[in-house]
Design brief:
binds 2-amino-2-deoxy-6-O-phosphono-alpha-D-glucopyranose, about 240 residues, alpha/beta, Rossmann fold
């Protein structure tokens, strides 16, 4: 779906999420959301906050799982995704703290494998992801599934691509300060979501989105694996869709 601009597109995505939450609330069920960080989803979160404050949308029955976190990373560090999600969404809505899940960047390396398995299991225990939001990195990564990731990969520790670290360097005051690793849900984890929405805005994403949507499926561009799923929607603004 291509919209005139990211403001309109973000509102549409937020409305889809709000409708899902309301449907689930009516049935007294939980809505299980997979959430993304980065600049791309920020306006979606702003609109969800507005719907909460102005229209009484409640997040009491919402359970969230974030895609990824840098490793190592302290939750209170400026660049942590825990802090990011608090600032752009969680601090402004009525979600229960115990319903928020973000990969833990403080673990000892030896504990990560068990932790990742438990993260996967937790998603399964609450009924699986109803909806997964995604952005896309310029390497074609979704979450932090960099080139070389397998289509059936699970939550795990990964090494970040050089381009990803370069793109993150502004947040960290230099590439040398960007962690070399991250914990990310796998492509297989993302695939289990009942709906997947990948959003992309601006000219700088046009070329990778063309590869992701129209290119040959390959581990070199992990987002191309989304071509395998019938539950995926790409929501783009005009500029991001300009190379299609
Ligand atoms: C990071 C995140 C991804 C995100 C990507 C794009 O690498 N781990 O989940 O999709 O950045 O970021 P942005 O939305 O800022 O372009």
């Amino acid at each position: 779906k291509v919209y005139e601009n990211k403001h309109i597109a973000s509102k549409k995505v937020a409305k889809r999420i709000a409708d899902l939450i309301k449907r689930k609330n009516e049935k007294q069920e939980n809505a299980v959301l997979g959430l993304a960080t980065g600049a791309t989803p920020v306006e979606v979160y702003e609109e969800l906050i507005r719907l909460h404050k102005e229209e009484g949308l409640s997040f009491k029955n919402v359970i969230t799982f974030n895609l990824d976190e840098y490793y190592p990373m302290k939750p209170d560090a400026k660049q942590s995704y825990v802090r990011f999600m608090d600032e752009v969404l969680f601090d402004h809505i009525d979600i229960k703290k115990e319903n928020i899940h973000i990969p833990d960047g403080t673990l000892a390396e030896d504990d990560i494998t068990d932790y990742c398995l438990a993260y996967e299991n937790k998603i399964g225990e609450v009924g699986g992801l109803d909806l997964q939001l995604l952005g896309i990195g310029r390497t074609g990564h979704i979450g932090f599934n960099e080139p070389g990731s397998a289509p059936n990969s699970g939550t795990r520790l990964v090494t970040l691509d050089d381009l990803t670290r370069r793109d993150a360097s502004r947040d960290f005051g230099g590439k040398e300060n960007v962690p070399t690793k991250a914990i990310t849900m796998g492509i297989g984890t993302i695939f289990k979501a009942r709906q997947i929405i990948l959003m992309g805005w601006n000219k700088k994403k046009a070329s990778i989105l063309k590869k992701a949507i129209e290119g040959e499926m390959s581990g070199n561009v992990p987002a191309t694996y989304l071509q395998l799923s019938e539950n995926v929607e790409f929501v783009l603004d005009r500029d991001a869709a300009s190379a299609l």
